């Protein structure tokens, strides 16, 4: 399966620090997406990176994609307490459904 | 900004009963999905729906599950003969046409089977 798997499973940082989460997958994709999930809530789409892109920015978010290594990273700069959430990568190929990883639980301590 | 809405937010049902989970996707979206998330686990795909028919389904989506888009706005998931292991958060998602369009998720329905 084109399963996305994130690491670390949990990450705890101080407010203002940067947080980096990684994702690996197994098969060919045409895009990879990152989502955030606050406790008990739905998934919020953060950023989509196409397979022919290497890096993408959105505000304090920076995503990289290395298709040769089948991996992606999400960097959140200058973290805030409000960034506390679980972060999931999800892969897609064509019109196939998203395949999610297990997520990284990020705790940002004020 | 338009969003996907799901009702109810929490559904408690006796084992063996039928439940219907409701979703209103974003109006100009053409692809619709149901996912579920058992507590503490990853989000799992159930079914995708396009052009008024199921386009793909997973092993989880067995004969007890069905989907319907009865009126051009609602998208429902029905589970018959519910089991304890059906207890989970169920998320509806929709997206526009185009393979590089992101999916937009609702806040989910927490289904508890007793």
Structural features, described:
The complex is a heterodimer of chains A (110) and B (114). Chain A has 110 residues and is an all-beta fold. Helices cover 0% and strands 55% of the residues of chain A. Chain A has strands spanning 5-7, 10-14, 19-24, 31-37, 43-50, 55-58, 61-66, 71-76, 85-92, 99-100, 104-109. In chain A, strands 2, 4, 5, 9, 10 and 11 form a six-stranded mixed β-sheet that branches. In chain A, strand 4 and strand 5 (43-50) form a beta hairpin. The mean pLDDT of chain A is 91. By secondary structure, chain B is mainly beta. Helix content of chain B is 0%, strand content 50%. Chain B has strands spanning 5-7, 10-13, 19-24, 31-37, 43-50, 53-57, 65-68, 75-79, 88-95, 104-105, 109-113. The mean pLDDT of chain B is 93. Classes of the chains: A mainly beta (110), B mainly beta (114). Chain A binds chain B through residues 30-31, 33, 35, 40-45, 48, 50, 88, 90, 92, 94-103, and chain B through 4, 6, 31, 33, 35, 41-45, 48, 50, 55-56, 58, 91, 93, 99-100, 102-108, 110.
């Amino acid at each position: 399966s084109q399963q996305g798997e994130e690491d670390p499973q949990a990450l705890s940082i101080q407010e203002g620090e940067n947080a980096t989460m990684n994702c690996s997958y197994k098969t060919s994709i045409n895009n990879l997406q990152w989502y955030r999930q606050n406790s008990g809530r739905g998934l919020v789409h953060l950023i989509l990176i196409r397979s022919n892109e290497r890096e993408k920015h959105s505000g304090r978010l920076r995503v990289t994609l290395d298709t040769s290594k089948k991996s992606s990273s999400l960097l959140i700069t200058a973290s805030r307490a409000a960034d506390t959430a679980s972060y999931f990568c999800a892969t897609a190929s064509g019109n196939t459904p998203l395949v999610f990883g297990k997520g990284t639980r990020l705790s940002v301590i004020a | 900004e338009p969003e996907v809405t799901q009702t109810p937010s929490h559904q408690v049902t006796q084992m063996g009963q039928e439940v219907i989970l409701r979703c209103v996707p974003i109006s100009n979206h053409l692809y619709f999905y149901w996912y579920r998330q058992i507590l503490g686990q990853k989000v799992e795909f159930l079914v995708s729906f396009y052009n008024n028919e199921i386009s793909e389904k997973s092993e989880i989506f067995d004969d007890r599950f069905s989907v319907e888009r009865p009126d051009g706005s609602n998208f429902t998931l029905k589970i018959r003969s519910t089991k304890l292991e059906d207890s989970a958060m169920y998320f509806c998602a929709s997206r526009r046409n185009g393979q590089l369009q992101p999916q937009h998720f609702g806040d989910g329905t927490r289904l508890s089977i007793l």
